[in-house]
Design goal:
The structure is a single chain. With 533 residues, this protein is of the alpha+beta class. 48% of the residues lie in helices and 15% in strands.
Length: 533
């Protein structure tokens, strides 16, 4: 078994090819040359949304997952880079945005329910009730606007009350009375949440106007797509709206019966647009015209496309992490990793001497491979390195070093039994290999289970731990063992006390009997190599 020379050159060539391929992709297929950093290292904002349902019951899991996907699509549609949208528990959705997009993340948290309602009255100026002419005559109807432009709303929102599902619908008279006194001031930014069957008094998105609206015509979930475009005739910006088949049927019937009437698009109880129906619309798309520029048309299209959530959410918490704090955490993580690696290096040199250099070289090459993988994973799947991920790498240092310890200790056992280094290496590898594979399999399985069951940063820890475990096998099989096979061919390496094996050869007491079936002495050792190889 041992007299067959290990084709070390092939193993080295395979390892070099892997490294060359990885770094070829790093330098020739993308712009970035460093791993992407996560929220806790780069700084950013985390927004937690809590679903509100009538009676405080937990939402259906499928509704929560659908809401998560829609919010994720809206994040992507707004161009917020590297954001993460995950569910937590049975009613929360967490939006994590690295970098300087924190304000956008907070605005995303305001997304809830999109509805189309008929405009019964308005727009009327949103002024204090004693100055509002509509307060004296709630039935007075102001002229309908063709299409108020949608502007971004500022200010902090109060938590709206969830309506009682068992209460009778709000009547037109009740809503008109509320409309008469509605001021749309800073204390009434989001408006009251309502049910589809209610008449409602609502404010425009910028708080400058108010409307009296009828029961819902179509829910926003019936929208299939919404895009910003330009009119071929004059180049003006418009919004093109497509409905699903059921929604299109309802929309066609309503627009046919209400030509010349305005209809309001409400998002979280706010009127984001109220265009007038110019003609019956029986096919897709519906064209919304107005005083749009590219920015306002794109904003309205995104609101219509991504604002239709099956649940209503309130912003429970919003936590910001400064870039400076992220840099400090990154520095602390790197220092911790450097200390861990340094301790492993010192231990390897003190205990294994020249064998320790083999271990150090293997760890360095493992880090080289890991670094390239992090860059490529960041490009291809958006993987971001978090503080938890760095912790996973630090833990993996011990797992990788443990593979070398198993191998080297088994090598010592073979030498203690009287074998030369050259014959001990293949024997030690055969036995150590099973242990290394078993230990790494357990580590990888634990990391995989943790990745599947965990959320947030814990997933980063599990991912880096599992990846490092796999790369440990690559380095041990393609570099460490072939290198030991090459070094074992040099007599000086095995006999030198500085190799870490010199003392092992002299641990047998002079005159002690040799193990059964083996010969003693240098000459016998040579015959043993030939007879057992």
């Amino acid at each position: 078994m041992a007299n067959r020379t290990l084709p070390a050159g092939r193993y080295f060539a395979a390892f070099v090819l892997i490294v060359a391929l990885l770094y070829g992709l790093v330098f020739f297929t993308g712009d970035t040359r460093t791993p992407q950093l996560g929220l806790d290292l780069r700084g950013g904002t985390t927004v937690t949304l809590t679903a509100q349902t009538p009676g405080g019951r937990a939402p259906a899991p499928e509704d929560l997952e659908l809401a998560r996907r829609i919010i994720e699509q809206r994040v992507n549609g707004l161009g917020v880079a590297e954001a993460q949208v995950v569910t937590e528990g049975d009613s929360n959705i967490i939006i994590s945005v690295p970098g300087d997009d924190g304000e956008q993340a907070r605005q995303l948290g305001a997304t809830a329910q999109l509805r189309f309602r008929p405009v019964l009255q308005g727009p009327a100026p949103a002024v204090p009730a004693e100055e509002d002419p509509a307060a004296e005559d709630p039935a007075a109807e102001a002229p309908a606007a063709e299409d108020p432009a949608a502007e971004g709303a500022d200010g902090a929102a109060e938590e709206p009350a969830v309506p009682d599902p068992d209460a009778p619908p709000v009547t037109q008279e009740e809503a008109a009375a509320e409309f008469a006194t509605l001021t749309c001031d800073a204390d009434n930014v989001t408006g009251e949440l309502s049910r589809p069957e209610d008449f409602v008094a609502a404010c425009s998105e910028d708080g400058s106007a108010k409307y009296l609206l009828g029961p819902t015509i179509i829910e926003g979930t019936e929208i299939d797509d919404a895009t910003a475009g330009t009119e071929p005739s004059d180049g003006s910006w418009v919004v093109l709206l497509d409905f699903h088949s059921d929604g299109l049927s309802t929309w066609a019937a309503y627009t046919t019966a209400n030509v010349g009437s305005p209809v309001a698009f409400t998002l979280d109880g706010r009127v984001i647009s109220a265009p007038t129906i110019n003609s019956a619309i029986t096919t897709n798309p519906t064209t919304i015209t107005g005083q749009f520029d590219q920015e306002s048309a794109t904003e309205l299209a995104n609101q219509l496309r991504y604002g239709a959530l099956p649940l209503t959410f309130t912003q429970a918490t919003a936590q910001s992490i400064s870039t400076e704090l992220g840099e400090e955490q990154l520095q602390a993580g790197l220092i911790a990793g450097a200390i861990g690696i340094a301790l492993v290096f010192v231990y390897a040199l003190l205990y294994y001497r020249l064998l320790g250099l083999v271990m150090i070289a293997s760890l360095v090459l493992s880090a080289v491979v890991v670094y390239a993988c992090l860059i490529l994973l960041g490009r291809e799947i958006g993987f971001t390195l978090s503080l938890a991920g760095i912790a996973g790498f630090i833990v993996s240092i011990g797992i990788t070093a443990d593979s070398f310890v198993v191998y080297f200790e088994r090598l010592k056992d073979e030498i203690r039994e009287g074998r030369s280094l050259r014959s001990a290496v293949p024997r030690a590898w055969v036995r150590a290999r099973r242990t290394i594979l078993s230990a790494d399999a357990v580590s990888f399985l634990a990391a995989a289970i943790l990745y599947v069951l965990a959320i947030g940063d814990v997933k980063g820890f599990a991912f880096t731990l599992g990846m490092s475990t796999v790369l440990d096998l690559v380095v041990v099989f393609l570099f460490t063992h072939p290198l030991m096979a090459v070094l074992s061919r040099f007599k000086g390496f095995g006999r030198n006390r500085f190799s870490g094996l010199g003392r092992v050869e002299h641990t047998r007491r002079p005159g002690a009997p040799a193990p059964a079936g083996e010969l003693v002495g240098a000459a016998a050792g040579g015959r043993q190599d030939r007879s057992t190889s």
